[in-house]
Amino acid sequence: MGGDLYALDFDGAAKIRWPWLFGQVDSAMETWIIDQMYILRPVVETGYENLLLVRLLVELQVPSVRKSSVADGLTVEAILENWWQLKPIIMKEWDEERDALIDLFGRVRDEWIDNDLSGWIGANRFYPGVADALRFASSQLYIVTTKQVPTQGNHDIHKPKSSSHFLSLASFVEDRLATLKNVIKEPALAGWNLYLGRWGYNTEKERAEAESIPRIQLLDLSDFSKKLK
Questions:
Q1: Is the dihedral of CA 55, 27, 40, 104 positive or negative?
Q2: Reported pTM
């Protein structure tokens, strides 16, 4: 799935956190920021980082609101390459705490889901062809997620009784190279076929690295449905 999460950033969490900042953001700048967020999405490991990225992009465009030492002369490409070095700097200079941002981001997301479930679902789109590939697959499929799964409600969701069930899986499709590299480190998962989805949240540099790792195969979106035969 591809998450169009940035409406939340402007209309919810980021505006709540830094209301003074968004008085400088007009519709044209908002569109530009959303476009850049699609480029920067591969660096995001936890949702709260979207808030930091949005604020940093505003600082790139509006010098008068800058409170970080890194924004002057910074480019989107440099953010993509150096996010892990930049993030602790801006958090310190903005006097932000990770846990507070996580709580805010999660609360606004949950309120959105509670108050407008169809709107939230609509903002989280499947990549073209993925929904049909899943719907018509003859293979047994499992969704691997770090997200909380509802225990009540009208959800047709079935959890495996034991994590050991997954040791027999034949194939694992993922769009984050770091996750696949962690799988490779696990001896119990040595039998898995690993695929990095080219269409997902990864960069050209990461795809080039994946090509050099024997266990990882790059998978195009057009070939995804063929793997679900």
A1: positive
A2: 0.79
